[in-house]
Write the structure tokens for this entry.
Amino acid sequence: MDALTLTTHERNLELWLSRIRDCRSSGQTVSDWCNMHDIGIKSYYYWMRKIKRETFDSLPAVQKRQNLSTSTC
């Protein structure tokens, strides 16, 4: 990624991480929170998956194996 793309990507991750934290701490359902903030529920879940994936990908390989072996799903 070039510098501008990387900066935009990081800004979007920070924005959505903030939104997801706000939603979770609101006590509302995701659907209600998204409606109240005029955010598409598909966008919300898209960014949640993206953040989870990037967080997991940044873990060291040893920790990934431990997380996968303790997973119940």
